[in-house]
Amino acid sequence: MEVVSLAEFVKEKRKKANLSQQEFAERAGVALTVIRKIEQGKGNLNLEKVNQVLKMFGHELAPVNFKNIAKGK
Q1: DSSP at 44
Q2: N or C: less crowded end of the chain, CB within 10 Å?
Q3: Domain boundaries, the chain
């Protein structure tokens, strides 16, 4: 399984849908700046807004507890 960044994933999916950033932002119900920040790989993103975008593709992000991953939980 290939690992891609959030920025790459969103940009690739948006382009496959043949949408501009503005059109995509409108359909996702977020500001254009949210799409730009995601696609530029900016940090400190609002998880709720990111999930609004990802729901367009049937995905969502959730916080991960790295301690549990290391323990195999």
Answers
A1: S
A2: N
A3: 6-70
Which tokens sit at 55? 């729901």
The domain made up of 6-70 is a member of CATH 1.10.260.40: yes
Say which DSSP state 32 is in: H
pLDDT per residue of the chain (73 residues) written in tens, 0 to 9: 677 899 999 999 999 999 999 999 999 999 999 999 999 999 889 999 999 999 998 999 887 766 655 555 5
Largest CA distance in the chain: 43
- Spatial separation of the C-alpha atoms in residues 51 and 47, rounded to whole Å: 6
Residues in the chain: 73
Tokens of 9: 């994933």
